[in-house]
Specification:
This protein has about 325 residues and is an all-beta fold. It has 1 helix and 26 strands. Helix content is about 0%, strand content about 35%. The longest helix is centred in the N-terminal third of the chain and has 8 residues, at about 25-30.
């Protein structure tokens, strides 16, 4: 997995394009009104699938208040137990244990990945109990983010591994038990161990009260926080972060980034490995687990199996397609809406 990293930049080629390619600002406003209602949780008023409404306070009816904004972050879901999420037990404070929990959509199960760390919505970092990466069996907890060695992680091919360690280090449920309440512990990295495989999405209880609903999370440009990675009609680029389904992404167990709007399609470099050159445009392709769809979330960048990083020099505004280039950008996963 050791690689030398080349990077790619997004050029602002089509600054006037609208999200649906028509060039109509009216369509942009209409699309922005179609919210990602599949990311529902208690407190979000939902009418029809894919549409949320936000009541507003008025002078004539002071009892009508705005609905809370949907939670940020993604859920880390056990690949072979899709009803179990990684969550903080009890109050999210220093030393709180991290364990498998029934997916409930609450903030205890919401995570953000940025600056190379996994953290809660109140900025507590995922780490080991002693902030080290040498003691297998050490329990996983959250602590204040302070740069400790065990607070840095990366994601590759469905695995979450500690980046600073000379050994390959990962985590899994204690005793490989896929049951609610099982704490997570530090283990030797083993890509063949299904208990070490995870998917990133937003898994929450269905608004009908039966089953779970799965949606995606935003990938935000840290350099230009108003921009999110987006896909429009098979073209991959960037647009203003306004909760469009085209800005949702799901990280699957094969290491692919699936589109929230089209879950069967994944981010792809678009050409055979040997033909990737500067100016090649990444696209959406049917998810096929090929190397052109393998993406590693490392520190603040996205690296594909060909060591490329989607980047942008686009300004906030309408949808802008992306192409491969030479400058790097950094990304925040789960923040941005």
């Amino acid at each position: 997995m050791l690689r030398s990293y080349a990077v790619l930049v997004v050029l602002a080629l089509v600054a006037c394009a609208s999200p649906d390619g028509t060039g109509s600002s009216a369509n942009l406003a209409s699309d922005a009104g179609t919210q990602m209602g599949v990311d529902n949780h208690p407190g979000t008023a939902t009418t029809t699938a894919g549409t949320t409404t936000s009541p507003v306070t008025t002078a004539t009816n002071p009892n009508v208040t705005a609905a809370p904004a949907p939670l940020q972050g993604f859920t880390i879901v056990a690949s072979n137990a899709p009803n179990l999420c990684v969550g903080v037990v009890g109050t999210i404070v220093d030393g709180a244990t991290v364990a498998l929990q029934p997916c409930d959509g609450t903030q205890n199960q919401r995570w953000i990945f940025e600056d190379g760390v996994l953290k809660t919505l109140n900025d507590k970092c995922f780490t080991t109990n002693d902030d080290g990466v040498t003691n297998f069996g050490e329990s996983m907890v959250v602590r204040s983010c302070d740069g400790a060695v065990a607070q840095y992680w990366a994601l590759y091919r469905g695995m979450i591994y500690a980046t600073p360690s000379a050994q390959w280090i990962a985590f899994s449920p204690q005793g490989d038990s896929q049951t609610a309440g099982t704490p997570l512990v530090l283990v030797k990295y083993d890509s063949n161990d299904v208990n070490q495989h995870w998917v990133l999405n937003v898994t929450v209880p269905s608004v009908t009260g039966t089953g779970l609903t799965v949606s995606g999370f935003p990938i935000q440009d840290e350099g230009t926080p108003a921009l999110c990675l987006a896909a429009q009609s098979g073209v991959v680029g960037f647009s203003d972060c306004v909760r469009l389904s085209s800005q949702q992404w799901l990280y699957n167990v094969q290491g692919g980034l699936g589109s929230g709007a089209q879950p069967q399609n994944c981010l792809d470099v678009g050409v055979q490995n040997a033909n990737v050159v500067a100016g090649t445009a990444p696209i959406l392709q049917v998810c096929d687990n090929q190397q052109t769809q393998w993406w590693e979330l490392y520190n603040e960048i996205i690296l594909d199996g060909l060591n490329l990083n989607p980047n942008t020099s686009a300004a906030p505004g309408a949808f802008t397609p992306g192409v491969l280039g030479s400058n790097s950008a950094t990304w925040s996963f789960g923040r941005g809406f």
